[in-house]
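Note to self: keep these together.
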Amino acid sequence: MAAQFGRRLRKGAATTAVAAVAVAALSASQAPGVNDHGRQTAADATPSPDASASDGSATGNSPYYTDLPPLNSPSPSPSTGPGPATGTSEAGIPATVLDAYKKAEAALRDAKPGCNLPWQLLAAIGRVESGQARGGRVDAEGTTISPILGPQLDGNGFALIKDTDNGAHDGNSTYDQAVGPMQFIPSTWAWAGRDANGDGKKDPNNIYDAALAAGHYLCRNNWDLSDQNDLDRAILSYNNSREYLNLVMRWLEYYRKGTHEIPDGTGTLPDNRSDDGAGASPSPSTPSTPGTPAGGGPKPKPKPTPRPEKPGGGGTTPPKPPTTPPDSPGTPPSTSPTPTDTVHHLEDAGTAKLTAMAGDAFTKRISTRAETKAGKAVGKVRIRFTIIGDTDTTFTGGESVATVATNSSGVAVAPALQAGEKTGDVTVRATVVGRMVAGLDYTATVTERAADALARTGDAALTCTPGGEFANQVEVKATYKGAVADGVAATATLIKSADDPAANDKGPYFKDADGKAVRTLTGLKTDAKGLLKLPKLYADDTTGTFLLRIDTEGEATLTVELTVAAAETSSPSPSPSPSA
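Structure:
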């Protein structure tokens, strides 16, 4: 990605120099420790090691709006103007867009409470990526009135990401483009997409779906966004640029100071973006000067020539196609093959047998190596690990997809798997992001929860008189390798003898829901502390010593002795002898 950012920097060098002078005074008084004036530097172009080890970026490192928040504190008072807001009303967020952010925060509070996602972070990213869905130009269901597309990622000043969705989301069957108010590229949306509004579709153009997807994306990898280091990693994983991180942080702090709801379609529209493209793209049905805000308002200085559509800039105007059609002979956008282009196949890199009990973490992890046709390792290639099929097993953090870059040895190690409650084999498929090579499948097996030891929690004798009930209930504790064995299935049976495990037909018994005698109980499970307390036991008229056997998954067995005996009768006291 460093090469892309370098090209982008050179492309806009002249414009950047002029813009830097204009915003220098404004930037100097912004958040401390940030000196890039909202523009990218060569140092910023170098990807963060933390970010490059994760998913690359949600947006494919597409361009974004670089407008800075106002110097003055946001005003909490509602806006009453009919047109786009200006000045301190930058703090105003269109009603539907704001509602989507807050609903996403609430959903993540339940799904991943340890993430501590603030809705203001979604608002900051939404502002930088799409100007809050182009000032809130959404319908009643939250879907953008016109598609919001970034430029095609053809390697010409941007990342090279060939089509991954056959144009389903971006209308481009040659290259991918960032889509929707949160600017997801199709390959990321394929696994990160969510249906937040319950319409049965995962639509990147719907602000509710996109905001929830962005929340889950930022909350993966067990990141805690109340920790600054994790917050930085999450933002960099969205768009891998230090400038982007600083800009999002500025808007985050701005929104934290106060914001308010404004009518849909009346939000302010940004003027500048990181590739020095035009401002908000006009609707194709009404040609106008690039940068004209929707709904009226001051008109920025027109550009001499149209530029590619701004990421999140709205409108359905497609980016300018390359001079040479992609399918025709000619010079390709990039003559130097990327590491991804050289991958011929994937090989297992010594993954051990993957087995875990339900509810436990797998102790072994999947390792995959990317290789050329000659068997040479390929580093800096993104490998996507996807859990396939109907299972509740996930990667640590609750996601079913994880993307990891290969190291210098060509090896990518997937995050640890967390077994769910569904038992059986789980398939994890490794594929190369951005290249059509055969995937590599791994099998992970989830077994039933088990115990290897059972013990009574008390030592009181279990006795009863014929036709009565036992005063003490049987309680046992299950463990596995010395640890509490919770949720372990168990069966309790009153057996005939130590040599005959068949259910007895006389002696002590349990009662079913109808009060009838039963001598076998199934479907029992230990609780969170590994404890299992059996129902009350009763005795018929048969006296003697009887056995209760408790079996658990994992072959732990305990036999308990029960005694049914008639009550002892006390002997009468001898009569005193008559006195002589």
